[in-house]
Amino acid sequence: MKIITVDNYEEMSALAAKIIAETVGSNPFATLGLATGSTVLGVYARLCKMCADGEISFANVKAVNLDEYVGLDPDHPQSYAYYMKRNLFDHIDIDLCNTFIPCGTALDLHDECDGYNNMLDLMPRDLQLLGLGSDGHIAFNEPNSPFDCRTRVVQLAESTIRDNSRLFESPSDVPTRAISMGIADVMSAQKLLLLASGLNKAQAVKAMVEGAVTEACPASVLQRHDDVTVIVDKLAASLLNK
Ligand code: GLP
Questions:
Q1: pLDDT (tens digit, 9 = 90+) per residue, 135-149?
Q2: What are phi and psi of 172, to 5 degrees?
Q3: pTM for the model
Q4: Is 55 a known active-site residue?
Q5: CB–CB of 133/145 below 8 Å?
Q6: Residue 135 contacts by C-beta under 8 Å, 6 or more apart in sequence?
Q7: Per residue in 103-131, pLDDT tens?
Q8: Does the beta carbon of 38 sit less than 6 angstroms from any atom of ligand 1?
Q9: Is residue 225 annotated as part of the catalytic site, yes or no?
Q10: Short-list 237, 218, 169, CA closest to 67
């Protein structure tokens, strides 16, 4: 694991955007695994600007997202499909036909997961961007998810519902289930880029980097991947042994 500690959120976002731009620059047909959440918003803002400035093109890029809430249709303002359009896809030159997000309102959720897994098998990701849950989750793979799991319907942990309730009117509005790419799917990407910012991620960062590799901390599995870059700001890195 390559751990890069930066001063703040802005530096973290700028460096991550640079790494993604380099990936797309060296392979304009790259497949990117994309994440949602507050952590990656700064990265997306920078990619939008780079694209507007003509520094980067996503015209031939494919984008595959990690997860979606069960029960929220793509037009719901808190859905991850809506998030991706508002924060990235509407502002770059990507072909929307080349963007993939699980459908949280599919009639048969298990068919939806099977279809997503088949799609992932055909579309290896060159780079997977990741955030980190305060409980150590990656995508929506909560603690004790098997390391070999694939895309499936998952139950969200109480702490995740609490963390994510800031974006909903009330905690009871937060869906309790999601479709999440599995840990095996995350690990199959050629390169992983995980970002964490703020004190509320410090414990999870420490467990991910210095703890045992255990399903109790899903992100600890990253220790087994041979091309991982972790960018953390000072607060998120504050519990790491120097
Ligand atoms: C969410 C998402 C993850 C995200 C993580 C961190 O629940 N499912 O993909 O990376 O938790 O979110 P945030 O960046 O808002 O802290």
A1: 999 999 999 999 999
A2: -70, -15
A3: 0.97
A4: no
A5: no
A6: 142, 143, 157, 159, 160, 204
A7: 999 999 999 999 999 999 999 999 999 99
A8: yes
A9: no
A10: 218
